[in-house]
Amino acid sequence: MTDRSAVRAALKSQRIETPSWAYGNSGTRFKVFRQEGVPRDPYEKLDDAAQVHAATGVAPVVALHIPWDRVEDYAGLRAHAEERGLTLGAINSNVFQDDDYKLGSVTNPDPAVRRKALGHLLECVDIMDATGSRDLKLWFSDGTNYPGQDDIAARQDRLAEALAAVYQRLGDDQRMLLEYKLFEPAFYATDVPDWGTAYAHCLKLGPKAQVVVDTGHHAPGTNIEFIVAFLLREGKLGGFDFNSRFYADDDLMVGAADPFQLFRILYEVVKNGGLRAETGVAFMLDQCHNIEAKIPAIIRSVMNVQEATAKALLVDADALAAAQLAGDVLEANAVLMDAYNTDVRPLLASVREEQGLHPDPMAAYRASGWQQQIVSGRVGGEQAGWGA
Ligand code: LRH
Ligand code: MN
Ligand code: MN
C-alpha cells in the first residue's frame, strides 16, 4: 500500500519550471502564427508566468534564454519576478543564432569564434549572479553536415576546453547542465549527440556539471527512462527539458504525445529519489505553442507532469519489489500498470483545494480574466518570441 499523505506532500512540493520562450510567439521554419496579447518583453513574460503559478501553485520558477530575454537591469528583472512570487530559473545560453557560428561555436575550427562563444557563456554566468539563478543550461548546435568536414576528436577537445573554462567560473551554488541532442541543425555528426557524451564531459568536469535530458532529443524508440535511472544512480541527472514529440524535436506539450512514456520516466525519478529537493533535479518545460493558446497550454503541460508524477507516486513499491524478487513478470508489470491506469485527477483536485487553489487550473485561468486583459492591453510594440 502506498502512503497517501506522503503522496500528497510530494505533489505539493514538486516545482515545475516554465520557459520564458513558451509565452512568446513561435512557429516552425515555415510560419510563425502571431497571437494577440503575447508578451512584448521579458517583464510581460514573467507577468504571464505568474498566472500559470497562480492557477497551479507549483510553477514559481521561470527559465530565461539569452539573448531573447536580454535586459539592461537583471537585478530589476529579478525584483519584478519576486514581486510576483516567482524566482528566475535556468539561464539558457544561445550560441546558435549568430552568423559566426555557421561551422560551430565552442567547437569551431577558428579560435576567434570559439573565444566569442565562450565570452557569451561566461556572460551568462554573470547574468546568473544578478538573477540569482542556480543553473546554466548549455545546448550546442555544433556539429558537421558532411563526412570529412572537420576533425571529430579535435572538436571534442575544443568542447572540453570551453566547458572547463565555464566550470571554473561557476560560483559555489551554481551548476552547469549540459544538454544533448541527436541531430539538428547538424545532420552528420553532432558534437554532443547523446547522454553518454554529455555524461563523460560532466564526469571529467566535476560535481557542479550535470546532464539535462530533453525528452525530444532522442532517436525514435529510445528508452529514456533507462537513461534517467542510470543518471540518477550516478548523481548526474541535473534536470529535464520536458516536451513531447511524434517525429523529431517537435516541442509539443509534455504528456500529449505519449503520457505512458512520461509516466515511465517519472516512475524512475520517484523510484530513484529524484523528487527529493536535495537531488536538485530541475523539472523544466522546453516547449513552443505554435497554434494553441500559450498560457493555457503551459498550464495543461504543468498538469500533465503532475498527473504523471502522481501516478508514479502511486506505484505500490512493496508489491512491485515482491513480484520482482519472486520473478513474477506478469504481477510486476500489473503493479506498475495499476498505478498508470489510476485516474489521479480527483487526487490532484483535492491536493489543490487543500492548498487553497481552484481544483481545476484551466477553469481558474479562464475565470481570472487575464486573457481578455492582455489581448486588449498589450497592443503595439514588437511581440517577443522564439528567436526575437
Ligand atoms: C534545442 C533546445 C535547447 C534550446 C531550446 C530553445 O533544441 O532544446 O534547449 O535552448 O531548444
Ligand atoms: Mn531543450
Ligand atoms: Mn530541443
Automatic annotation (TrEMBL):
InterPro entries the UniProt entry points to: L-rhamnose_isomerase (IPR050337), Rhamnose_iso-rel (IPR013457), Xyl_isomerase-like_sf (IPR036237)
GO biological process, one term: L-lyxose metabolic process
Source species, domain of life: Bacteria
GO molecular function terms noted in the UniProt entry: L-rhamnose isomerase activity; metal ion binding
Coiled coil: none
UniProt KW keywords: Isomerase, Manganese, Metal-binding
NCBIfam families documented for this protein: RhaI_grampos
Name of the protein described by the UniProt record: L-rhamnose isomerase / sugar isomerase
Species per Swiss-Prot/TrEMBL record: Actinacidiphila paucisporea
